[in-house]
Amino acid sequence: MDFQVVVLAGGTSKNLVPLVSKEVPKALLPVGNRPVISYVLELLELSNLKDLIVVVEGQDAAVRVGSWISGAYVDRLHVEVAAVPEDVGTAGALRAIAHHLTAKDILVVSGDIVSDVPLGAVAAAHRRHDAVVTAMLCSAPVSGPSESGSSVGKDKAKKPGHYNIIGLDPTKQFLVYIATGAELEKDIRIQKSILRAVGQMEIRSDLMDAHLYAFKRSVLHEVLDQKDTFQSLKQDVLPYLVRCQLVSPSSEVLLNGAPQTEENGNEKASSQNNQLMLSQILANSSTPSFHELYALGPNGSTPVRRTHKCCVYIAGKSKYCVRLNSIQAFSDINRDVIGDASHLSGYSFSAQNNIIHPSAELGSKTTVGPHCMLGEGSQMGDKCSVKRSVIGRHCRIGSNVKVVNSVVMNHVTIGDGCSIQNSIICSNVQLQDRVVLKDCQVGAGFVVTAGSECKGEALAKKEK
Amino acid sequence: MGTQKKNASRGSEDPVELARVPLQAILLADSFTTKFRPITLERPKVLLPLVNVPMINYTLAWLESAGVEEVFVFCCAHSKQVIDYLESSEWFSQPNFTVTTIESHNSVSAGDALRLIYERNVINGDFVLISGDTVSNMSLTQVLQEHKERRKKDSNAVMTVVIKRSKPSQITHQSRLGTDELFVAIDPNTKQLLYYEDKADHAKGSIYLDKLLLADNPSITLHNDKQDCYIDICSPEVLSLFTDNFDYQHLRRHFLKGLLVDDIMGYKIFTHEIHSSYAARIDNFRSYDTISKDIIQRWTYPLVPDVKFFGNSSIKLERQGMYRASEIGQSRSAQIGPFTVIGSGTKIGNTTKISNSVIGEGCSIGSNVSIEGSYIWDNVTIEDGCKLRHAIACDGVIVKSGAVLEPGVVLSFKVVVGQQFIVPSYSKVSLLQQPIKQDSDEELEYADSSGGIAEISSITHTVDKLNGEITNQPFETQCWPTSELGTGGAGYVWSICEGGHDEEWRHSVAPIPADKLSEAIHAADDDLELTQDGRSLPPSGELKPDSNDSEYDDDGESRDDSIYFGKEVEATFLRAVHENITVDHVILEVNSLRLSYNKVAADCAGDLFYSLMKLALETPQDSASELVQATTNVLAKWKKLLKYYLAEIDEEIEVILKLEEICESTKEFAPVFDKILYQLYDLEVIQEEAILRWDDEKKDADESDKVFVKQAEKFIQWLREASEEDEEEDEE
């Protein structure tokens, strides 16, 4: 498939402090004891998309991500890692690597997606409609984090916030309206012209833009060139393309929406266009989309208007698709990967529905419940209890420790009698005896002194 | 009423009980609009023939077949004619179908009608609300059942509106019925109506939906491809709602939108979409044309000419959609084309061609006549060699030989078109003169028709008189201006009211002319380009798009605001002058204005000063010096008022700027700028500091801006010297 894939792996996202640090950029945060970016890479590999550019913000982070990828996927994928400056935004990142993009269509994936949606299907939908952009939509999480999550129940009693407001045509194949970010706070404003063209539009608030797009390269280039203020794909480029789909500003799009190869100059005879389009319609042997009808204009014979198509691929409700873009999401995804969405983890579960590495050592009367994961070489003392948690590699856990609903990364030392609930413990943390943590995040290398009790705090070493 | 409701709720569970609740309908035999004028000046709309049968018969026949047992016909305009017609018809003598007329002479809207019916207390359950110009063959069973079931669950579901798919033209933005495009938002699961916009403001390129709508519903469908059938299933509350909200006039514009906007009472409106059945309302001449064709092409079966229902005579369907009554006199050489209806007793001459038309009863059509897409009612005489295209000719019209009716012509009753005369497109001709009070303003439609009713009643008298006259006297004795309709013509050509001219082609029976279409296409394209370049395509950034907008809007608003504020201040001031209101009261009033318009003291000072100057200008004076004198007088009199708003130097500068502005725009003041400035100083309205600062500000201005500075140069010079002296003195 002539698709080039860009994986936007981000850098050290501020949302995720203190989980991320210079040593651990966002892409390498562990989900089920492997870096989050591996989920995307393997998903791409499944769809046989092996020609990748991974874009990382910041030089150091790029080196780290690059070395991990080259170690893990040396023979399997053809990966280039490109570093871009920080804070250029997603559109800026693409602009920076634009000269590397040569294929006809570009698939842009966010590096923090954990999903099982077949990416090949998105690419195919894009190709089938010869669209300018195809966006993947997934159902927005209705009640916030995992259904079983109990501690956060109170906030969810209120109406769930909307992630996007999305307008679809009746066939649910085309995107005719999208509102993101601050627009969500305002009343919904819909252009009548597009409504007239589609006749009927379904406005949904239960769908979310999953930040996975297929772009026609020529158009993407043009938009990025012309609109140098565009920063974000999600908030600038996509809404822009959606808004002007009936009056395509792009010269790369021929009158009838057929692609124009650059060598062909500007204009073809309209009759030729017409034939081209007729043949297209016949080839698809389906009714023309509203774009084509609209482009035909009132006479119905010669295309008079430039249009382009913005397509959507709506992931089924049963599919899993979440982005790791907040601390909440980090714990949710970790829980889901060993719980509800366990097929994503790629591990095989034991009869107790958990994964305990053979080299892990458990003390007597220690129980590891279902939906748990215990990494390689970790040791646990006596009378411990682990529920719905992920524990990384080479951790040392004392006796009488309770770990519930938490993520413990690698090389963590936990003293006797600790209790950890709904917390995230980063690598190399040392918890001394009888520490009680609830709803806390502990940054890498931090030492929690004996007997401290924390609730809802973020503990981290001061940045040097 | 309580027992009735119980019956209703139990009834739907038990089919036997259901039968016991008689289904009622309210039929409005008045559309409360003026779209069918001039014809409706003489005959009510519901009695106009639609494929040779008065419209109301279609509606009543459908209601009867749909299982309605009791119909209340509300008559208003020409109520006598409607009642007489119903009495002469068989509608009053049907088994299981009661027709009751309710007459009113002072209702001006559907709202009034429903309030009156509420007072009569005749409706005691769910009812069908429909106007007497509706043609339909839909079954009511399903929609009634849905309505009742919703009512059982939620007593706030008061109304179910029937809609049908119909995509309006993208070019003209109107449906094939000639009605404006409709934008509705519907909850796809519950079918609740969430938004309704007809009478779309074409200037607005976007629709605004309240974001709260999506908070309640995860998904909404927004439609542009629906048509309102104007068939409503209502619960009795609808009537009381009209009574509670006495300002509701229009069923859609006020009632429907009122309920949608008002979420306090929580009343809900639902929709029911029909797919295979027919339902449409005759709203204007175009829908008259469209629906006539639909009837001829049998979309409305069983309400078609060859099926006997009330009011039509036996007529046979032939090949190519031709309907011919039995006793017609047709010449062999006449060519009667497809989709044509010929009424009984009509005679057609040699080599006449008729296609896509409806000819009434007892017409006589000469030779070599060509009739295309026209509606000829009863007893019309068309002499030899006439050409009619897309015209309507009412009863008794005479078109003399060789006359031509161009597309869109409407000839009202008994109009005579002279020989060889060409009636231009879209003319409306009537024996009655156009009512002088013609207001095309939508808002005033009701006020208009209220005037219209009084008018109509007076006109109907004149009609009767006229009829008498016409039958008694030969036409020649009446002196019609020959220029209007040619020699021997009779009738007034109505002038098309301004503003309406553009729109005439939209609602006419004639198809839309090509030039109008291409115009509309251009307009649409321009529209698109506008949205393309303009505000809906913001450059970038999350907030920018709308901040751009709001800036724009705010500008417009604040500009408007300033103008209004200025006017209000001026009006307040003038009232004070004329009614001798004390200064303190004026200050109070101006202050309240200032607060409500969110203005600062400087704005008040500026506008008050402007009003003062205007007052001074209005006092009669002959020379510049007198003007200065008058100004001084006014200023002296109202000094206190002005001074109240001049607490700061900035406000005083504002006054000087205003003075400049005034002098720029009024030539009387221009030469005396410096004198007035001096007076202001002299009266201690303005301090020298303000004048000097104004002078400083102006230093860097353009030459054109400095005209008045130069004029006042001497004075300023003097001021400067004086102040320097002061300073010097101070120093000493």
> How far is the first residue's CA from the last residue's CA of chain B?
98 Å
Low-confidence residue ranges of chain B: 1-19, 438-477, 532-557
Helix content of chain B: 40-55%
CATH superfamily of the largest domain in chain A: Spore Coat Polysaccharide Biosynthesis Protein SpsA, Chain A
- Give, in spatial order, the strands making up the sheet with the most strands of chain B: 16-17-20-23-26-29-32-35-36
State the helix count of chain A: 10
The best one-word shape of chain B is elongated
Instruction: Quickly give the CATH architecture of the largest domain in chain B.
Output: Alpha-Beta Complex
CATH class of the largest domain in chain A: Alpha Beta
Summarize the helices and strands and which ones pair or pack.
The complex is a heterodimer of chains A (464) and B (732).
Chain A: E1 3-10, E2 30-31, E3 34-35, H1 36-46, E4 51-57, H2 59-72, E5 78-84, H3 89-96, E6 105-110, E7 113-115, H4 119-129, E8 133-139, E9 165-168, E10 175-179, E11 188-191, H5 192-198, E12 200-204, E13 207-216, H6 217-226, H7 233-243, H8 270-284, H9 290-296, E14 310-314, E15 321-323, H10 327-338, E16 355-356, E17 367-368, E18 373-374, E19 379-380, E20 385-387, E21 390-391, E22 396-397, E23 402-404, E24 407-408, E25 413-414, E26 419-421, E27 424-425, E28 430-431, E29 436-438, E30 441-442, E31 447-448, E32 453-455, E33 458-459
Parallel strand pairs in A: 1-4, 1-6, 4-5, 8-14, 16-18, 17-20, 18-21, 19-22, 20-23, 21-24, 22-25, 23-26, 24-27, 25-28, 26-29, 27-30, 28-31, 29-32, 30-33
Antiparallel strand pairs in A: 2-3, 6-13, 7-15, 8-13, 9-10, 9-12
Chain B: H1 2-11, H2 15-20, E1 24-28, E2 49-50, E3 53-54, H3 55-65, E4 70-75, H4 79-88, E5 98-103, H5 110-120, E6 127-131, E7 134-136, H6 141-153, E8 157-165, E9 183-186, E10 193-197, E11 206-209, H7 211-216, E12 219-223, E13 226-234, H8 237-244, H9 251-261, E14 268-274, E15 279-281, H10 285-296, E16 315-318, E17 322-325, E18 329-330, E19 335-336, E20 340-342, E21 347-348, E22 353-355, E23 358-359, E24 364-365, E25 370-372, E26 375-376, E27 381-382, E28 387-389, E29 392-393, E30 398-399, E31 404-405, E32 410-411, E33 416-417, E34 422-423, E35 428-430, H11 445-472, H12 482-485, E36 492-494, H13 500-507, H14 514-533, H15 544-579, H16 583-597, H17 601-618, H18 624-637, H19 639-644, H20 649-665, H21 673-682, H22 688-698, H23 707-711, H24 713-731
Parallel strand pairs in B: 1-4, 1-6, 4-5, 8-14, 17-20, 18-21, 19-22, 20-23, 21-24, 22-25, 23-26, 24-27, 25-28, 26-29, 27-30, 28-31, 29-32, 30-33, 31-34, 32-35
Antiparallel strand pairs in B: 2-3, 6-13, 7-15, 8-13, 9-10, 9-12, 16-17, 35-36
Helix pairs in contact in B: 5-8, 15-16, 15-17, 17-18, 17-20, 18-21, 20-22, 22-24
